[in-house]
């Protein structure tokens, strides 16, 4: 939308949120913003009359014109380091950001800033942003998808803060990364039986609660960046496991109640009562014990999040109730259906949920204990 009065020309553009904005120079860069187009037009008419009444017409020299054009050609946008500092400060103010998410975002922004060190934001084009997104060809499509999403968020922040010109950003001009969702990695019933027979005693509760109750790794044993309270033996009852809000990593940290399946109840009875943290200590399952177990299973690596995925898959194979499994796992119903529905046969589910403790192992453990 444009309004012209003599030598005064004002233009207004519509913002993504539907509002109208007019940018003009009156001893500095200023804005008019209105939600209604008619109000914006009337405001532009009034502004044009004021600017015309207060303005002075004079001829400028050719030298002044060249200086003005040279100034306009310069890039006056913010440097990427300054934008990163403000961007991360805004991320820290978001109440739902966990310490782990903030740590990962800070690391990713640090890599982005190091790649474009010293550059001004408006001077970075879409081809250069795309080059950073595809910097490592070995990265999986999902990783490149996350890198592009970060760039879009980062450049959009700079635009909203008026640190770069208001236009389609370089990140938005890059091609979207097509991510084909794959099936979650799970353990077969035979694999799970082998894992339970081979796992170290101090990691047995972790395998049982992740594989037969679907409890997240971050809920059983949060990492050092998390402020969550780990799962405790006091949270485990006779028939149910209570995931407190202080422990839950589910949707918005909501508490959950997970029913204890008959085979899990038998396993918990076999290892006896405990108090305190379910998995104490600082050793990481994924860094040590999982590698040893993968070797015993004949696998090149430990399948990612396979215990929780196995729970969801075999639970759906038996009960076929996505709503119930959603409540137990703390995921959305659509996620449960997409990842776990009709992945395993009911017969496989029966085998998985019939894995019971070995009486000989339990007896050996009792005899080796100080009170046995």
Describe the structure.
- By secondary structure, this protein is an alpha+beta fold.
- It has 3 domains: 2-58; 80-160; 189-368, Orthogonal Bundle (hpI Integrase, Chain A), CATH 1.10.443.
- 48% of the residues lie in helices and 8% in strands.
- It has helices at 37-54, 62-73, 80-93, 99-115, 126-133, 141-160, 189-198, 204-213, 217-220, 262-271, 289-297, 306-319, 322-329, 333-340, 346-352, 359-368; strands at residues 2-5, 8-14, 20-25, 29-34, 240-243, 256-259.
- A 4-stranded antiparallel β-sheet has the order 1-2-3-4, covered by helices on one side. The protein has a two-stranded antiparallel sheet with strand order 5-6.
- The protein is elongated.
- The termini are far apart.
- The model has no long low-confidence stretch (mean pLDDT 86).
């Amino acid at each position: 939308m444009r309004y012209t009065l003599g030598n005064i020309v004002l233009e207004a553009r519509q913002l993504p949120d539907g509002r109208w904005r007019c940018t003009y120079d009156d001893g500095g860069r200023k804005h008019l913003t209105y939600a209604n187009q008619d109000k914006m037009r009337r405001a532009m008419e009034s502004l044009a009359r004021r600017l015309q009444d207060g303005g002075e017409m004079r001829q400028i020299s050719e030298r002044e014109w060249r200086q003005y054009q040279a100034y306009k050609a310069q890039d006056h946008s913010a440097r990427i380091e300054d934008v990163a500092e403000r961007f991360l400060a805004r991320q820290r103010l978001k109440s739902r950001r966990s310490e782990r998410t903030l740590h990962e975002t800070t690391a990713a922004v640090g890599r982005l800033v190091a790649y474009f060190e010293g550059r001004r934001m408006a001077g970075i084009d879409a081809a250069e942003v795309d080059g950073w997104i595809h910097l490592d060809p070995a990265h999986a499509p999902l990783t490149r998808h996350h890198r592009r999403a970060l760039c879009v968020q980062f450049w959009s922040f700079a635009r909203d803060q008026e640190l770069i010109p208001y236009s389609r950003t370089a990140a938005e001009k890059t091609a979207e990364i097509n991510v084909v969702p794959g099936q979650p990695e799970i353990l077969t019933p035979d694999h799970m039986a082998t894992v339970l027979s081979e796992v170290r005693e101090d990691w047995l509760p972790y395998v049982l609660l992740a594989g037969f109750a679907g409890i997240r790794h971050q809920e059983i044993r949060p990492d050092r960046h998390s402020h969550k309270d780990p799962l405790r033996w006091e949270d485990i009852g006779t028939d149910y496991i209570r995931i407190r809000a202080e422990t839950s990593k589910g949707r918005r940290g909501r508490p959950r109640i997970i029913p204890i399946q008959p085979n899990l109840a038998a396993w918990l009875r076999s290892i006896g009562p405990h108090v305190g943290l379910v998995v104490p200590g600082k050793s990481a399952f994924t860094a040590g014990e999982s590698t040893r177990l993968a070797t015993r299973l004949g696998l090149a690596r430990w399948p990612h999040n396979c215990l929780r995925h196995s729970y969801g898959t075999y639970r759906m194979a038996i009960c076929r109730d996505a709503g119930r499994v959603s409540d137990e796992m703390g995921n959305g119903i659509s996620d449960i259906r997409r990842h776990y529905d009709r992945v395993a046969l009911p017969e496989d589910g029966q085998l998985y949920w019939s894995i019971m403790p070995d009486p000989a192992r339990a007896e050996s453990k009792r005899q080796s204990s100080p009170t046995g």
